[in-house]
Write a structure and sequence with these properties.
globular, mainly alpha, 2 domains
Amino acid sequence: MKPATSNKPLAAVAIVVFIALVSMTAIRVVKQYQVPGPFTPSAQGMCDFHNGIYFPTKALLRGVSPYGQAYADDYPVARQIPFFSPGILLLHAPFAMMPLHVAEVLYFVFCVGLIIAIAVLCADVAGKPWRVDWIACVACVLVASRGGHITLFDGYFTFELVLASMLAIHWAPKHPLWAAIALAVVSAKPTYILPLGFLLLARGNVKAIVIGAIYSVVLAAIPFGWLAYHEGLREIGRGDLTAGLNKVLGDIETTQQVHMNMPDESPVLSWTRLDLLAAVSKWTQSEPSQATHLIVMAAILAVPMALLVVRCRRKLDDGLGGATGAMILLATLTSLYHQSYDAMLMLAPITAAAAVELPYWKSMPGKTRWAVCALMLFPLFNLLSTRSLLLKLNLGSAAYAAATCLNGVSIATALGVVCYFAVRRQTGPAA
């Protein structure tokens, strides 16, 4: 299908705005570029690319655990990386083989390509396939959002996770092998794959989940084995996989403790967390355990999973753009640890709700539909989850808790409304 548009002026304006936003972000990267090394709040350009992709991948290729303190001491990084699958580092190996500045430029261009791909997919599942005006507008919203801008500016791999999550949901019913590849990418972060995996199982996408699990294990096992072999050499002078694996696992446990002690990670202190448990923790002033996180996840997922099972049995699956996709993405965000930039997952249901092409969104009263859109859009533009603004406001403890729990409350409320209308207004099989 060839690209088309029914609103050429809007398409032209949106394309110009998109180019301008990307260009301004590129200029900001240059002006506020962070020289690899200790973290500098006033200069964060490409800092996540350095700390989360480039140097960890370089270390991995050399057999050095990027989860260990030795890596943090020997490489120009702020600290060791938190736990995510080393498989995602392996996928970025081509960038780590390039000179740093070449890799930075190419990764920035790659991220722009991912933004366009996300916009194309969102327009497609919303019933506006290859509509240039819709694609350009979605891309503009994505780059203008706090999550989209900071991901492009810092150079993190969130765009990859967002696109892979959407593709896994989109492909799972008819193309499980393709969905499995997407799930292998999503498996980089446990907080993504855990809720998404359970929700897809409830949807009946067993083949995609099983094959995706195999791909994920293989993708992680290869670099884990490589690290274990080399860490064994360093520990006892020979390639003892058991000794090396124990060392890597110990590094992961330590780095997770360091990671969770960061103020923006703590459910109580964080100004960026999206999950409902973090919102509640701000009022209880208690730090929940990992077990509590999992129990709360199970409780929150119970209702959308039950609805997905029923919709599967009745053949009511309406895909990524309908109630099915909205429930899966909203439940993924609200059930387990997520940061504000992960709200980019909301672009698919927001686009579909705005397009009003699918039966589910048509069945929802207009004011309610726009209210749900606003609830899903809010975390993408909420300035109250910006540390600089919060510091200027100098809020008291109660006001701080209220301000910083708004994202979590808005996502959870949107999930409740979407689930309610999924029960009340069954729309029949997707076209």
